[in-house]
């Protein structure tokens, strides 16, 4: 099996490389963005024509935080539409037998029921701060579904919850909550600070999946004879931001005080995926949050020493 992993240098892509490197019979086909810019239709088509992969996983995307999404909505919409359209169309044209497209839980409506089932897609308005990104991802997922319906190709999608793990982005302003906390508590410990001020009340609940569990779920989905068009991938359980913060503090060895600045926004009270469909099919996440954060902190330290910390 010749497997093309698009976006293999990203957090998800590198977890997929780790997972499929030990898959018997899999030969990995990898291109950096410099070697193959997936927004370029001709280049993508030529690549698929020449290499003829059997299977493709689309883990490449233009990803960013609230600020970047708000400032550059055209870039997020265009790049993600182009990546999805080019990869899916070229895969179809050049005989890819199976394609897995990565969506995201942020493409469900802002006021979706909790936990969020797969069929709440397109039932209400999106979260305005990442609307451009979400619309492009919804288009990608619908493209995969439409090619499957019209052409009979086995193209389908996975919808992961919030991910964390090796290779995460630790940008001080532009990173997700878990890597941001790891960086802040690590730096506070290093500087000997007595207090860290956390945003909001700490009461919102969020779900976190280790990226190696996601990669394992992708391998599982690619083995199903008749996978759903899209399926949620999460742990099925959530924690409060306060619990998460205290866990990160403990893992990093920060022994000072945690203060809560309740004047800062909390965001939506709960965001949890309904993972019952995937559980019924026979897959569950294995990594506990405390262990996963411990491993991620170890990777953070190693990446920092090697000078390869992102952000
Ligand atoms: N991280 C999460 O919490 C999360 C949660 C749910 C879903 N997902 C989904 O998982 C996928 C991957 O996310 P991630 O967290 O791994 O992001 P990431 O770490 O930023 O990785 C994205 C990868 O895509 C590559 N890329 C971007 N534009 C490209 C282009 N035009 N041509 C070729 N490659 C390009 C990037 O290359 P460069 O390194 O050169 O920029 C990078 O290697 C996305 O679809 C995202 O929606 C992520």
Question: What is the N-to-C order of secondary-structure elements (H for helix, E for strand)?
Answer: EHEHEHHEHEEHEEEHEEHEEHH
Give the structural class.
alpha/beta
**Spatial extent as radius of gyration:** 19 Å
CATH class of the largest domain: Alpha Beta
Q: What share of the residues lie within helices?
A: 40-55%
Return the domain count: 2
Global outline: globular
Overview of the molecule:
The chain starts with a strand and ends in a 6-residue tail after the last helix. The protein folds into 2 domains: 2-164 and 208-233, NAD(P)-binding Rossmann-like Domain (Rossmann fold, 3-Layer(aba) Sandwich); 177-205 and 237-271 and 289-305, UDP-galactose 4-epimerase, domain 1 (Alpha-Beta Complex), CATH 3.90.25.10. It is 42% helix and 16% strand. The mean pLDDT is 96. It has helices at residues 11-20, 41-51, 66-71, 73-93, 131-151, 177-191, 211-223, 241-252, 276-281, 289-305, and strands at residues 2-6, 27-29, 55-58, 98-102, 154-160, 162-164, 195-199, 205-206, 208-210, 230-233, 239-240, 257-261, 270-271. With 311 residues, the chain is α/β, with parallel strands linked by helices. It binds NADP nicotinamide-adenine-dinucleotide phosphate.
